[in-house]
Design goal:
By secondary structure, the protein is an alpha/beta fold. It has 13 helices and 14 strands. Bound molecules: iron/sulfur cluster.
């Protein structure tokens, strides 16, 4: 007789489940886990990373209403956000929940989005572990894509795990080999994450993910150069804790050299929410471009309505040509987002706003030397009335 999830200890249920499903395959384990009363209320946690589509596809076939928790750390690649939308729609998943870090905590602990540079453990804890802990609160169990072949503490992975005596972790792919994953995707013609073909076999947050060279382990680049190998999503007694070699499937990885920047608006400092590239002005298909300070904005005239963001380079604070470019763009009718990027100082903020800039992008270093209140004081002087002034 199955143990009652409402009263039987997690450890007893896990022992019994592993015993009962010992000789089952991945799909059978997953299918039973979705309905076995001993498992209880369950969700799939997915990063929509390089291999996530396998479990997402299985779920879509078995029960497309299964809750899928997608942790949007707000540091992900634009490609991942799009892939999440595309795959969810293609597979007909009806309950995909994008879960995000607490904005209050982000403002308090990582307002510049730079915590990953100084303390990646704290960053993962803030953006992933705590976020998931809140989202998992109503569930008795969650499904992960971890596999034994990934090594480390995963080498002895069971189908069912006791997570701190509060919840069950289900690992249907525990016994799969790398080839099983690949074959499943090929046989079911599943869409691959677009970055896989660009050299990213494991895909996570943008600043912590870089390409993996030929011959390197797939995970060799994880937090490259840092003493960190996993995001550490794990809970003990209901509280999120760090533990090496744990995590959700598809979390990623290596570290590219990154210059951190801070966006300044009238609301203060913020992390850059523009995930896409800034293309050269000649790239006619781009949604966002970077204009050099000596550029002629006329090159954009024919496609101003297609552009979502135009950034204008300020190579030094003494170079005021960017203000003229902004003024001309607004006179030409550009109504999209306009950004001053580079060496702009707080004293220039009011001028930047008057000529039509919506925001300023500065290096973290400059933001540290010129704190937010210096910029906000300037924000009080300006009126965002560039159009009326320009008409006058
Ligand atoms: S992977 Fe990097 S950016 Fe993402 S939460 Fe962890 S440390 Fe932060």
């Amino acid at each position: 007789m199955p143990l009652d999830p409402a009263s039987a200890p997690v450890a007893d249920r896990v022992r019994d489940l592993n015993e009962r499903y010992r000789h089952h395959g991945a799909t059978a384990v997953l299918e039973r886990a979705l309905s076995d009363a001993q498992v209880g209320n369950i969700a799939l946690v997915s990063s929509f990373g390089a291999e996530s589509v396998v479990l997402l596809h299985m779920i879509s076939v078995m029960d497309r209403t299964t809750p899928v928790l997608f942790i949007d750390t707000q540091m992900l690649f634009e490609e991942t956000l799009q892939y999440q939308l595309d795959v969810s729609e293609k597979l007909g998943l009806t309950d995909v929940r994008s879960i995000r870090p607490d904005p209050e905590k982000i403002r308090e602990l990582d307002r510049f989005g730079a915590l990953h540079l100084s303390d990646p453990d704290a960053c993962c804890d803030l953006r992933k572990t705590q976020t998931l802990a809140s989202a998992l609160a109503p569930f008795d169990a969650w499904i992960t894509g971890r596999k034994r072949f990934q090594g480390g503490q995963r080498a002895a992975l069971e189908f069912f795990e006791n997570e701190g005596d509060i919840r069950i972790k289900v690992n249907p792919l525990a016994h799969w080999a790398k080839d099983d994953v690949r074959d499943y995707m090929i046989n079911n013609r599943l869409p691959r994450h677009p970055l896989v073909s660009q050299g990213y076999p494991s895909i996570g947050c943008k600043p912590c993910t870089s390409k993996v060279a030929e011959g390197e382990d797939e995970r060799a680049g994880r937090w490259r150069g840092k003493d960190k190998v996993e995001c550490g999503i794990h809970f003990i007694n209901g509280k999120p804790v760090r533990r090496v070699a744990e995590g959700t499937e598809g979390e990623a990885t290596p570290q590219e050299e990154t210059t951190m920047s801070v966006i300044v608006t009238d609301g203060g400092f913020a992390a850059d929410d523009w995930n896409g590239e800034l293309a050269a002005p000649e790239d006619t298909g781009a949604a966002a471009v970077l204009l050099p300070s000596d550029a002629d904005p006329e090159v954009l005239r024919d496609r101003l309505d297609q552009l979502k963001l135009v950034a204008v380079d300020f190579p030094s604070f003494a170079d005021g040509r960017g203000f003229t470019i902004a003024r001309r763009l607004r006179l030409m009718g550009y109504t999209g987002r306009l950004r001053a990027k580079g060496h702009v100082i707080a004293d220039q903020y009011a001028m930047a706003r008057r000529v039509g800039f919506d925001e300023v992008e500065i290096d973290l270093d400059l933001a540290t030397r010129q704190p937010e209140d210096q910029w906000l004081r300037r924000a009080e002087w300006k009126a965002h009335d560039y159009q009326s002034r320009l008409r006058a």
